[in-house]
Amino acid sequence: MVFPVYLGVGAFKLHPHFVFEVVAYGVAMGLLRRNVSRDAIPLSQRSSVVIGGLIGALVGAKILVLLQHGDLLWSDWRSWLLLGLQGKTVVGALLGGLIGVELTKKWIGLTRSTGDAFVFPLLVGTALGRVGCFLTGLSDRTYGTVTDLPWGIDFGDGLPRHPTQLYEVGFLMVLGLILARYRQRDLPNGRLFQLYLVGYLGFRFAVDFLKPDFQPLLGLSFIQLACLLGIAYGLRQLLRREVTVS
């Protein structure tokens, strides 16, 4: 397989990252629209929450991707700036979106949890996006470290690497099945999102040890540090709800 794997017929070909990113956004927004049409939050408030989340996600994705690749600032600052314009990270988008939603809720006076409606759109959208990352190859910078395992993938530099993008797709499928079963129970409002948050960030913290990232603090990357903060927040919310329910 030659990366990037362009998609199309004949001379008409599109970059895989663009194709899967567009599909991911479209499917995720369609699922979110269906979910919010069923909840008890007024449309005006829900629209404000969605917009606040999208703005927060954009800001968070850009800030964290720049921190993640801070090693390029002094050695190749042009690439660093280009990465800031074009790059983004799912963890930064997730945590930035969470902050944006919470700030918006305080602004409009909404106290009800709103996260459950986002869970499956996020799961499906992220999985689709990771397929595009895999097909893009080295330029996406989401590949893993060198491995001698039989499923190592040569993304174009002659070295077999962990296909961490596919690991994430597989994990998201399993997490989705687990959360789908939980959704059938009578869970407190917001519990599904907190389970998703802790589960996904826990996976990202672990799998990022298989990535050749800039790790400035205690052998951890900025994405891993952000994951730890998000996990702490999610566990705090889960434990607080357990105490409230009991």
UniProtKB/TrEMBL annotation:
One of its GO terms (molecular function) is phosphatidylglycerol-prolipoprotein diacylglyceryl transferase activity. InterPro entries: Lgt. It comes from the Bacteria. GO terms for biological process: lipoprotein biosynthetic process. The chain crosses the membrane at residues 6-28, 49-68, 80-103, 115-138, 164-180, 192-210, 216-235. Keywords: Cell membrane, Membrane, Transferase, Transmembrane, Transmembrane helix. The keyword Disulfide bond does not apply. GO terms for cellular component: plasma membrane. Belongs to the Lgt family. This is Diacylglyceryl transferase. It comes from Phormidium tenue NIES-30.
